[in-house]
Write a structure and sequence with these properties.
Largest interface: A-B, 35 and 34 residues
CATH superfamily of chain A: NADH:ubiquinone oxidoreductase Nqo5 subunit
Largest sheet of chain B: 3 strands, antiparallel
Strand order of the largest sheet of chain A: 1-2-3-6-5-4
Structural class of chain A: alpha/beta
Distance between the termini of chain A: 44 Å
Radius of gyration of chain B: 20 Å
Structural class of chain B: alpha+beta
Number of strands of chain B: 8
Strand content of chain A: 25-35%
CATH architecture of chain A: 2-Layer Sandwich
CATH superfamily of chain B: Cytochrome-c3 Hydrogenase, chain B
Strand order of the largest sheet of chain B: 1-2-3
CATH topology of chain B: Cytochrome-c3 Hydrogenase, chain B
CATH architecture of chain B: Orthogonal Bundle
Distance between the termini of chain B: 40 Å
Shape of chain A: globular
Number of domains of chain A: 1
Number of domains of chain B: 1
Oligomer: heterodimer
Number of helices of chain B: 15
Strand content of chain B: 5-15%
Number of helices of chain A: 3
Number of strands of chain A: 8
Helix content of chain A: 10-25%
Radius of gyration of chain A: 17 Å
CATH class of chain B: Mainly Alpha
CATH topology of chain A: Beta Polymerase, domain 2
Helix content of chain B: 40-55%
Order of helices and strands of chain A: EHEEHEEEEHE
Shape of chain B: globular
Chain lengths: ~170, ~350
């Protein structure tokens, strides 16, 4: 089992890789393939515990990376989308699971306070549709290209986004 | 024929809770559907930001009235991940035994409601009666019948009562005898089978893409059970088989839940027999460190996930809850379109709706 919070660096430059047993581990393969495809956008890989992986990604490449995760790496299931408000930014955490590789990926992206928007992934995973609506409803995150970005839990004429820290019931 | 929208709910016997299903019909055939939820939104995630970690345990019990123990367990699991606590072995065994009892109780409540939906009132009465057996054991264990407030961060509230193993094994033997009876009662009922077979088909690829989890996913032929495939707690130490069925229809989902009850009986037996001696609780720190924790369990209704952000104080900065039914119900149009209005009851019933966790 990997140590908690152990950082993993990128592939060695200019070296032709010999086949190794490392590739048997799906997590290593996923890290390598993500680093090869999105070298500038994805960073900060951490193995949390067995089968759980964390990474950070730039907001602009989120959609492309998610599409690649589903089509190229076999992540069939989006488990959860959480929006968190910090003092200086919004953080969106995508928990994505792969049924075939038994891997659980935590993909974190940030959005600035004055522009809380991010590309919708509901055209990639249908399961993201309602979760994005929930994040919009409760936290006020705008999801670009969402098919129906409306309130879901609260009434449609409600004025606030109650999970924001400045909201006091 | 002219199409029209019909509201099934918020007050409708089909809904099993407080939600609304709008369906567009062309004669008897459903051409579009739109579930509406939110009637029971209590703002639990916001509520949790203002409570200490211990105070949240009873709140998470209130997420689902059908299986409250799995939710408080999931919460404790998540916070233990955040705090980096190792739970004593005995506590894990007690938890697993209790969760599997809760799973049987939850599935029995579903089967009761499903039987009543499809016109088998005898099924309703039988299942509710046998659910009492497990509720009684859980009451002896925890002190309450529905909302238990039993798991603690770092273990469970107290040790098992005397004769717990005897009662649990007896209940399993009793339940296995009953399950045979149910299988004969439901599978041989012509009405039940006619309303179930080839109704509400959800293809394998759709089920995966739409985020459907739990029995509906396994009923669509995907063999994925978190207890087996990404094990938590002490599940790797037990022998059991995840239940799957390849048919993708309502009958498959019914079959998966029945098989899960058999497997739960197996797990309870092993948990009670192998339960080690020792401590059942360690003291957890009051404050959580800065960082995040994530927990992921196989709830009776699907995949429950919690994500907690700690900021160094005794209250969570943010707690996000993933409810399995919230996502599953968003896939309802896929199952409903093309079937008749009379099939709505069977299709939505086969999902095991629980509004408490859907709306949070």
């Amino acid at each position: 089992m990997a140590e908690r919070g152990k950082g993993i660096s990128g592939p060695a430059e200019g070296l032709e890789r010999a086949p190794s047993t490392v590739d048997e581990d799906p997590i290593e393969r996923i890290i390598r393939s993500l680093l090869d495809s999105f070298p500038s956008a994805i960073a900060d890989f951490q193995k949390l515990r067995k089968g759980v992986l964390r990474a950070r990604i730039e907001r602009r490449d989120l959609f492309k990376a998610c599409k690649y995760l589903r089509d190229g790496l076999g992540f069939e299931h989006i488990s959860m989308i959480s929006a968190i408000e910090y003092e200086d930014r919004f953080e969106l955490v995508y928990h994505i699971a792969s049924y075939q590789h038994r891997v659980f990926l935590e993909l974190i992206t940030t959005a600035p306070k004055d522009d809380p928007s991010v590309d919708s992934v509901s055209s990639i995973w249908g399961g993201a549709n309602w979760q994005e609506r929930e994040s919009y409803d409760l936290m006020g995150i705008k999801f670009n290209n969402h098919p129906k970005l409306e309130r879901i839990l609260l009434p449609s004429d409600y004025l606030y986004h109650p999970l924001r820290k400045d909201f006091r019931g | 024929m002219a199409e029209m929208w019909i509201n099934m709910g918020p007050q409708h016997p089909m809904t099993h809770g407080l939600w609304n299903l709008r369906i567009k019909v062309d004669g008897e055939t459903i051409t579009d559907a739109e579930p509406e939820v939110g009637y029971l939104h209590r703002g639990i995630e916001k509520l949790c930001e203002d409570r200490t970690y211990t105070q949240i345990i009873p709140i998470t019990d209130r997420l689902c009235y059908g299986s409250s123990l799995t939710w408080s367990h999931l919460y404790c699991l998540t916070v233990e991940d955040l705090m980096g606590i190792e739970v004593p072995k005995r506590a894990e065994y007690i938890r697993v035994a209790a969760i599997e009892m809760q799973r049987i109780a939850s599935h029995l409540m579903w089967l009761a409601a499903y039987g009543a939906d499809l016109g088998l009132m005898a099924g309703f009465i039988y299942c509710m009666r046998d659910r009492e057996v497990f509720i009684d054991i859980l009451q002896a264990l925890t002190g309450s019948r529905i909302t238990y407030n039993f798991p603690r961060i770092g273990g469970v509230a107290h040790d098992v009562p005397s004769n717990f193993d005897r009662d649990a094994l007896r209940a399993c033997t009793y339940m296995e005898r009953r399950l045979k009876e149910y299988e004969e009662m439901f599978d041989r009922s012509k009405v039940f089978m006619m309303r179930n077979e080839d109704v509400g088909v959800l293809r394998r690829t759709d089920a995966m893409n739409l985020g459907v989890t739990g029995p509906p996913l396994r009923g669509s032929g995907v063999r994925y059970d978190l207890r087996k495939d990404m094990p938590y707690s002490v599940y790797p130490e037990f022998e059991f088989e995840p239940a799957t069925h390849p048919d993708c229809d309502c009958y498959a989902r019914y079959r998966v839940r029945m098989d899960e009850m058999w497997q739960s009986c197996r797990i309870i037996r092993q948990a009670v027999q192998k339960m080690p001696k020792g401590k059942w609780r360690i003291l957890a720190p009051r404050n959580a460190p800065e960082g995040t924790g994530v927990g992921r369990v196989e709830d009776p209704r699907g995949e429950g996930v919690m994500y907690v952000v700690g900021d160094g104080t005794d209250k969570p900065y943010r707690l996000k809850i993933r409810s399995p039914i919230f996502v599953t119900v968003s896939a309802a149009p896929k199952m409903l379109i093309g079937y008749k209005v009379a099939d709505v009851v069977a299709i939505m019933g086969s999902l095991d709706m629980c509004i408490g966790e859907t709306d949070r």
